[in-house]
Write a structure and sequence with these properties.
231 residues; 8 helices; globular
Length: 231
Amino acid sequence: MRDWSIEQKWISVLLPLLLLYNDPLFPMTFLVNSWVPGILDGVFQASFLCGLLMFWLCIYHGVRQTDRRFAKFYLPKFIIVGLIWITAVTLASWQGYNELQDPTYYYRLDTTNFMGFKIFFFIVGGLYLLYLLYLLVRAYAELRSMPYFDIRLKFMTLLMLIVLSISVTITVMRFGAAALQDNFVAELSTNYENSIEFVSFYGLLNFYMYTMAFVYSPSKNAQFGKYTVPI
């Protein structure tokens, strides 16, 4: 692992999170009369998606930065992505908790709380996108003239754009103008309307992770010498 690139190290973290994202505890929702499996599913999904957001920030910064001390390199990213994770987990548990306490609770009528969540979510999400765009521009500006790093950047960016474009397209097709409604954030944590949406989101992210795992897997005939230079 000492000679692994930053992409390979992150793949070793994202693959276990992908297993949780696929919800191995799903049968428990039929066997146990409790809100715990549903809450755990929300936590698992939020953890994987935020791990993926963290991965994108780290690779575009780490590919041109060798000094990766925690306070300087990881802490700012953990703060931004951590706020998104807290918001996602809160939204996932808020509806389940209120429905357990009050069977008449209906999330569409709880517009006051969800309006605050939506504003906070879009503010933090906007900060994340600006930070990611800044790191992306800096990486291409500094490394585009270096052949090896240029290939790494193009491959990472191509896969990321495919995932983002398909995800945004599906979201727009499903919600459209409803994205401006007060309960839009609550809708994101509800069930899928049909099997196509389910297969699209889960299949897309699984395919994305399997592709990166194949590309970044260590070569079987790799040669390790005395003067191996870690990436």
